[in-house]
Amino acid sequence: MPRRGFTLIELLVSMAIIGILIALTIPAVQQSREAARRTHCLNNLKQIGLATVQFHDNMGCFPPGRIMPRPGDPPELSCGRDTPSWLVRILPYLEQGNFAEGWDMREYYADHPEEVRTLAIPTYICPSRRTAASARIPTVTVNLTAPCGCFGRQTFFSGATGDYGGNHGDISPGTSGLSTDFYWGGNGNGVIISSRPYCVADQPRDWIDKIRYRDITDGVSNTILAGEMHVNDQNINHPPEDGPIYSGWHFSFSTRLGGIDVPLATGKDYVDSRLYSFGSWHPGICQFAFADGSVHALSTSIDQKILGYLCVRNDGEVTTGF
């Protein structure tokens, strides 16, 4: 009886067809996975937005991005730099009450136990960028040559990294080395800004510059509360480009700017030499929570002026339909 089977040509053709089908399927699978990660990321921002709104409803104001005195302030207003950031203050509203108990908002970030500083929670992590298990830096000393606003050798203490930052406003208050620059306490024109402390026994017991609903005169539905922070893919977990989000030492670890001269990053390879920008690793968009608790995805090609209108809480430029 003659044997039945594939000829060599038939086998090669079959393998070629299978290869083509696999090649056509892989992009669809990748797109589906990215869509799921993008939705997960948006849900994280939704939780952060609602937690921050609940903080406001309970405390009567939004949390300060960090405590930061102004140069030349008197002693009663000059404490608290490098105490924990706003992302620690909202932990109880993210069902992280036990974790929050490990923090003291009056103490320096570096004085907290390492196991507290380095604990990353999934809500602060975008799955398109990293996992909670990989979101941390060790204690490291870096020779800084500028863009973050500081020079010389500086030690960054170990801590969890993350992907979401508060809206500090735009760059218009200034970056010229004056006490009016945007990063000093009370100068930001966003929602989650640096604030001056009220000090007792050289510890911050309250903050002065409190942002409330009534201060967002452009409307809470038209003003960004928080969004994805840009981190270049070559600098993941490398300070100062990517630093500990619970630390209030550098404003860019937990807050960002947007507007004229500070556009959205266009992709994960975007170079932001000043470390100011919002940006994501999702193709073509960056996702945000707004001050009313809603969430939106903005195109990375959004006009800088429009982005600035959305970041500044009280410029009188109400932008809808973005």
TrEMBL record:
PANTHER family according to UniProt: GENERAL SECRETION PATHWAY PROTEIN G (PTHR30093), TYPE II SECRETION SYSTEM PROTEIN H (PTHR30093:SF2)
Domain DUF1559: start-end pairs: 30-304
UniProtKB keywords: Membrane, Transmembrane, Transmembrane helix
InterPro entries, per database record: DUF1559, N_methyl_site, Pilin-like, Pre_pil_HX9DG_C
Signal sequence annotation: none
Protein name as annotated: Putative major pilin subunit
Spans traversing the lipid bilayer: 6-29
Superkingdom of origin: Bacteria
Keyword Cytoplasm part of the UniProt annotation: no
Source organism (scientific name): Gimesia chilikensis
